[in-house]
Amino acid sequence: MGRLLTRVFFVVALPVVLVAVWWAATDGSKDPFWPPLRTILDTFPDVWTADRLRTDVVPSLLRLLGGYATAAVVGVALGTVIGSYRGVRAVCEPVLEFLRAVPPPVLVPVIMLFAGIGDTMKIVVIASGCVWPILLNTVEGVRAVDSVMLETARSYGVTGMARLRHLVLRSASPQIFAGLRQALSIGIILMVISEMFAADNGIGFTVVQFQRSFAIPDMWTGILVLGLLGFLLSVVFQLVERRVLGWYHGLRATTRRS
Amino acid sequence: MRGGNFALGAAGLAAVLALGEAVPRLGLVDEAYFPPTSRIAEALADEAGDFAFWSALGDTLTGWALGLAIAVCAGVVAGVVVSVVPYLREATASTIEFLRPIPSVALIPLAVLLYGTELKSVLLLVVYASFWQVLIQTLYGVQDIDPVAEETARSYGLGTWARVRHVLWPTALPYVMTGVRLAAAVALILAITAELVIGAPGLGQRIAVAQTSQAVPEMYALIVVAGLLGLLINVGARTVERRALAWHQSVRGEVAV
Questions:
Q1: Of A7, A91, A109, which is closest to B219 when you measure between CB atoms?
Q2: Residues of chain B with C-beta less than 8 angstroms from the C-beta of A238
Q3: ipTM
Q4: Could you report the per-residue pLDDT of A180-235, keeping only the tens digit for each?
Q5: Of A31, A62, A233, B226, which alpha carbon lies 20 to 30 A from A88's?
């Protein structure tokens, strides 16, 4: 019981102190850009009503989900192909390195040319930014599949889909998840940026709108919403990862102990 | 073997460039959207002769380097202090986990209000985004200290500072370098994003201007420059990493093989 309490104390203490400091430092603040935390929190329920959640947050999340899922499928599929064949890998490597090095947000103007400013543009932008970390990590993961296991699978006649599912993708999955994690933060960045460029709804659009109309407390609530969203998505990601990679973490823990 | 790979890679690159030339010429996509490689190369040459381009490149690099330097110093110092001081690590864990996933672009509106299109607003975003990469890696690195080495240093009576210098730092350095490499890439993304969205002077702003003025080949040329810059930064970061860790097993092992 005592240990649990100490743990809870450690988790909660610093956030409480920080919020208290923020509250105290801005209380009665006259600086228009740093409104009192009280005002921000008072504004919060007025701004982020159920209606706004439906018209702004849900479309943003759907775009993110669409782009991210596309990137995951394309990245893992292409990555598996490129990782499995040495020749293909040698041909593609410099081009992939270059494409990965292009900062994803600069693709927004290019994709706007092709796809206009609708939802397609945003999904494509998100997908085209997220795909690189997933692809390159999949290539690395597939490349590093244990050759003894590959031989064993071959001699037991495990081929085709079964080989791919149970051996190749399985043993590459820790790497693939590392890529998916990097892609998630890029995805959120691109979701916000694509909406800041041209949109009529979405969280990014709304926050910029508040800023332009000098509705400063409202803008702050938008920043808080983006922060909460990033935090929630990373929690969800960790839960999924723990489920899918449970076997791997267990294995690592055992080897470490021995 | 390496020579063969190099030739194959060059062939791949040449094939992509040729495809970029052929597809718009054959009318498969509209030339107004996707200019052929030669037009992009021409625009690139024009840019290279333009003083404004070089000053924009300089602005971008300034924002990147300054932001990265601040983030690395702050991240390393914070990481070491948090790990060395008892209980601080446990006390900060939840806050770090909460603050880290906040997308730095959420700060764009605030940066605009506070600093407008000055360098400071670029720095705000760059530092916020790259700080976490360095901090987290430093924390991981310090955690990796060999307890035997630590106990040995203690029993020989080394003080806190000497232990940080001779035990903690060499253990953490490989992790820190990974953090710096990741942070260098993130810093470039955020520097160019800030210029693109906020309009701070730099490559990103030139891309935005080229886009609004329908100068499509110039836009592609600038994007190529941004990509090359990213590539150089990646290669540079890896070289620095290898130099700084020349004594370390992971690097020495690589050379021996």
A1: A109
A2: none
A3: 0.82
A4: 988 998 898 889 888 887 778 888 888 888 888 888 888 888 888 888 888 889 88
A5: B226
